[in-house]
Specification:
single chain, alpha+beta, Ubiquitin-like (UB roll), Enolase-like, domain 1, 29% helix, binds flavin-adenine dinucleotide, binds FE2/S2 (inorganic) cluster
Length: 479
């Protein structure tokens, strides 16, 4: 039995663990204000708000895509849908702003837009236009041309009305863990490692975390998992801290938390996360899920390869550490043994002589899959490269380092002229495929241009932060 709070009422549900939150709201609760557009996390029509007591910076309302959230994931939690916002006849400021700014025409996207605006009301870090644009980038609207929606966001971001939703943002202990079986489908979210290993060693056990990848199999392919086992509540999986010069990232830390934390502690990671999915996706997506999904076009693997991250893997036998360069074995194949999970990712902060960068090229700036991504780290001493790591996505069957180019760079000056002479080595490293995201020629050309851009950016500086509203993935540097 799942128990959670929905629009101020406690609900109990005993449905299949493969039921999405969206289907539960619309079909079982008849809360049809929440809409289904794409059922794959792209449009934001299904956005609802979840109270996360453990967010970095304190308890927070988080806009999430209900179409990809499996119902058991909200066990023990507090949820609000568009139906729960107004106070009698008085609209919530997020709703009022949409009315006043004429932010709704056909209205299909409006409930989702309102729920993203709702989150922004209670944020303390959404004052800039860029943060407001990022807040809304997971909500598509075919009618209003966005300007009115952006105006509404400007009106309400950080307004923090003194209401019941603000009052709910207090530290609280919630317990989302639990287990149950319905028919031949089971769900468990253990908060104890040995219970977890018992569950995960079952035949057909399927590990899940945020479900922003796995959920697509349910909504797009009609898969019904028989034995879902979530890592989300395991002890230590949401740890996020710095120990000396090592950043420790629990595998289940939501990417919005990582983005906020990394802005100070590991800016190159925050730079890639700026171009990663939408806020709704990043509230549920995790670094562990991104790496274990092992997609050749996943965005965080290139950055982690460049930073030479260490994966902390855990199984019943104990813990072992694996350098990320040994993790990706083949197309969507990893070095994880049966019953083993990624518990954490450890990254050494780049030192003062390191040059670092992260780049993503996709057809649109926001909410798009990479054609090519690059994570880059080069150590320079007296103007010469002494070590280099260039991690690429979209160039091979796995995320992969450009070892021929890396070797050629060592001992050479870190200048655009030297890189230009050596850039041809990328042809030895990669023979990319042509597909609908780009031809082999396009990918090879973009990859070379990203390396050129990296040296342009970092010839005289260790790292360039992105401007608020970047026009391209490479920062324009004035010479
Ligand atoms: C609309 C949309 C936009 C997206 N945009 C991007 C993007 O810009 N860039 C990008 O790279 N990706 C993107 N993604 C993909 C996805 O959001 C990420 O890969 C995300 O990081 C997955 O994390 P998760 O926790 O949701 O993983 P899940 O879906 O829960 O799991 C993914 C896989 O990893 C396994 N797994 C999860 N955690 C662990 C663990 N700790 N140990 C072992 N195995 C584990 C699961 O068994 C599963 O096979 C997008 C997805 C959607 C739907
Ligand atoms: S229905 Fe489109 S994001 Fe959920
Ligand atoms: S108002 Fe019509 S889709 Fe946004």
């Amino acid at each position: 039995m799942i128990r959670f709070s929905l629009n101020g009422k406690t609900l109990e549900a005993d449905t299949s663990p493969n039921t999405t939150l969206l289907d539960f709201l619309r079909q079982e609760q008849r809360l049809t204000g929440t809409k289904e557009g794409c059922a794959e996390g792209d449009c934001g029509a299904c956005t609802v708000a979840l109270l996360d007591p453990d967010a970095v910076g304190g308890p927070a309302w988080r806009a999430i895509n209900s179409c990809l959230t499996l119902l058991p994931m909200v066990n023990g939690r507090t949820l609000v849908t568009v139906e729960g916002l107004s106070d009698g006849e008085t609209l919530h400021p997020a709703q009022q702003a949409v009315v006043e700014r004429l932010g709704s025409q056909c209205g299909y996207c409006t409930p989702g837009v309102v729920m993203s605006l709702f989150e922004s009301c209670y944020r303390d870090d959404a004052a800039s236009e860029a943060a407001q644009s990022d807040q809304m980038c997971g909500n598509l609207c075919r009618c209003t041309g966005y300007r009115p929606i952006q105006d509404a966001a400007k009106d309400v971001a950080g307004c923090r009305p003194a209401d019941r939703f603000a009052a709910a943002l207090v530290p609280a202990v919630t317990d989302p863990s639990g287990a149950w079986t319905r028919g031949d489908e089971s769900w468990s979210m253990p908060d104890d490692w040995s219970v977890f290993f018992d569950a995960v060693e079952q035949e057909e056990a399927q590990i899940v975390c945020g479900a922003t990848d796995l959920g697509l199999q349910v909504t797009q392919r009609g898969v019904r998992f028989s034995t879902l086992v979530s890592v989300e509540s395991l002890p230590g999986l949401r740890d996020l801290h710095v120990d000396g010069d090592v950043v420790h990232i629990g595998a289940a830390v939501p990417l919005t938390d990582l983005e906020r934390f990394a802005a100070e502690e590991l800016p190159v990671v925050a730079r890639m996360l700026r171009f990663f999915g939408s806020r709704q996706i990043k509230h549920r997506a995790t670094l562990g899920g991104n790496l274990c999904n092992a997609s050749p076009i996943g965005d965080m693997a290139p950055v982690m390869l460049a930073l030479d991250a260490t994966l902390v893997l855990r199984s019943r036998a104990g813990e072992r550490e694996l350098p990320i360069r040994e993790f990706f074995l083949g197309y969507r194949q990893t070095a994880l043994a049966a019953g083993e999970v990624v518990a954490a990712i450890r990254v050494r902060k780049p030192g003062p002589s390191a040059r670092v960068g992260a780049y993503k090229v996709s057809r649109r700036r926001e909410m798009d899959i990479s054609a090519v991504a690059l994570g880059a780290w080069v150590e320079v001493s007296d103007g010469l490269v002494i070590a280099a790591r260039l991690g690429f996505g979209g160039m091979a069957a796995t995320p992969k380092r450009a070892s021929a180019l890396e070797a050629a760079l060592v001992g050479q000056p870190w200048t655009i002229d030297a890189v230009e002479r050596l850039i041809g080595h990328l042809d030895e490293d990669f023979q990319p495929l042509s597909d609908h995201r780009g031809s082999a020629w396009y990918r090879q050309t973009v990859a070379k241009n990203l390396v050129r851009g990296f040296v342009e950016e970092t010839e005289h500086a260790s790292f360039q932060a992105l401007p608020d509203r970047p026009l391209s993935t490479i920062v324009q540097v004035s010479k």
